[in-house]
Every structure is written in C-alpha cells, then in structure tokens.
Amino acid sequence: MTNGFPGKPGIRIAPSLLAADFARLAESVAVVERAGAEVLHLDVMDGHFVPNISFGPPIIASLRERSKMFFDAHLMIEEPKRYAEAFAKAGCDLITFHIEVTNDPASVVDHIRALNIGVGVSINPTTPVESVRDILDAVDMVLVMSVWPGFGGQSFIPDVLGKVEQLRGLLRDDQRLEIDGGIDAATIGDAARAGVDTFVAGTAVFRRPDPAHAFAELGSLAAAAGGAGVG
C-alpha cells in the first residue's frame, strides 16, 4: 500500500458512492470493483457544514463486508474528531477532513492517525493553499474541491487548477493529490495535467448507462493526459 492507497503510485479513479443507486448500493459497488476500481470515495455530509445529509457508518460497514476496495472517506462535517473513530471502525481506510472546520488541524490529523488509518485534508474552492501548508508533511493526501461541497452533479470550477498546480509543487511523491467535483470526460484531462493523481467521479460513472465502461474511459483519459498508470 502506497500513501495509504493500494498499489504503486499512479492515477486512480475513485467512484463516488453519492451518485450510486441507493436502492442497489452493493450491486453498484460490485460493478465498478469488477471493472478494476481500487478506491471507493465516500462523501459523508452532516447537514451543518454542508446543506445536505448523505449516509453514515452503518452503510459503510455493510458495504465493507462486500468489498475489498480501499474506502476513501471524505467527511464534510463540522466535528471530524467526534466521529472519526466510528468511521474507522466501520471500515474506512482513510479519512479526509475539511480545513475550514477547525482552528487546530494538527490535532485532527493526530487523532485520525491514532486510529491506524490514513489521513487527508480538504480545501474548498476559495480556500487558499496557505491554510494547509503547516500540516502538509503530516497528511497522506490533499483533496481539492472543484465544486462547492454538498451536492453531486455540479459543474467543474476551473479556477481551482491553479491551486492544484501549487500543491503538486509542495507535496512529496508519496502523497496523493485528489480532486472532487465535476470530473468527467471533458474535465479530467485538465485536472491530470495540473497534477492530480486521484479523481473522484460520481455522476460520470454511476449515472452513465454502462458504469464499468465510463470508469475505464475516465482512466484512459487521465492516463493519456497525466502519463501515469491507472487503477
């Protein structure tokens, strides 16, 4: 496992559970896993930090029993320290928290790390890179939001690519740089060229007629633009 992610460093497409058919979650997850997905992105919302509510540890735990994928949990919640342990126990392999919810991000990193899982930090579209600079060395991944968190299916915000390029220059080779929001066949190439290696794709995978084909297509486009292996 590298950077808390499976396999060698390279491009990963991380299908987002938020866009899956909630009446057929296990089946939807199995489709992308059979297609080669190694990472499942879990968008957790609390109705406070973002104006929506998604799902919690019980759903994740039930899927953990049915999948070998790496569970990449994105906590869009106000109190990540309060709930991190429950998500770790549910089977999450990495937990990402938002820099905007804490005045002491180092303590959040330490708390999640103590659960023996990976840790990431996320920034919203207008949050500056400087806000995470002091903890960059301590995290496994930085997640750049390319839409405003809270709802799937939004349009990609291209202005965030400048931050992606800046972060790529600051991160070590063993750290992941993830992007979430509006990633599809039209936007993934620009994100890959800017330095992203992990692409969250919800609507562009699960809402397509053939999710397995959509997953493979995105991986090919990202690899062609970024020059890295796909997984």
Describe the structure.
The protein has helices at residues 25-34, 57-64, 80-90, 105-113, 161-170, 188-194, 203-206, 211-226; strands at residues 12-15, 39-45, 70-76, 94-98, 118-123, 141-145, 176-180, 198-201. With 231 residues, it is of the alpha/beta class. It has a single domain, classed as Aldolase class I (TIM Barrel), CATH 3.20.20.70. An 8-stranded parallel sheet has the order 1-8-7-6-5-4-3-2. Helix 2 (57-64) runs parallel beside helix 3 (80-90). The model has no long low-confidence stretch (mean pLDDT 92).
Annotation keywords:
TIM Barrel, 231 residues, 8-stranded parallel sheet, globular, alpha/beta
How would you summarize what this structure contains?
The protein has helices at residues 25-34, 57-64, 80-90, 105-113, 161-170, 188-194, 203-206, 211-226, and strands spanning 12-15, 39-45, 70-76, 94-98, 118-123, 141-145, 176-180, 198-201. With 231 residues, the protein is of the alpha/beta class. It has a single domain, classed as TIM Barrel.
Topology:
Elements: E1 12-15, H1 25-34, E2 39-45, H2 57-64, E3 70-76, H3 80-90, E4 94-98, H4 105-113, E5 118-123, E6 141-145, H5 161-170, E7 176-180, H6 188-194, E8 198-201, H7 203-206, H8 211-226
Parallel strand pairs: 1-8, 2-3, 3-4, 4-5, 5-6, 6-7, 7-8
Helix pairs in contact: 2-3, 6-8
Q: Mind summarizing the main beta sheet?
A: 8 strands, parallel
Q: In percent, how much strand structure appears in the residues? A: 15-25%
Radius of gyration in whole Å, from Cα? 16 Å
Please state the second-level CATH architecture: Alpha-Beta Barrel
Number of domains: 1
**CATH hierarchy, class:** Alpha Beta
Mean pLDDT: 92
CATH homology superfamily name: Aldolase class I
Helix content: 25-40%
**Low-pLDDT windows of residues:** none
Distance between the termini: 13 Å
- Give the overall silhouette: globular
Instruction: Label the structural class.
Output: alpha/beta
Q: In order across it, which strands form the biggest sheet?
A: 1-8-7-6-5-4-3-2
User: If helices are DSSP runs of H or I spanning 4 or more residues, what is the number of helices?
Assistant: 8
- What CATH calls the topology is TIM Barrel
Order of helices and strands: EHEHEHEHEEHEHEHH
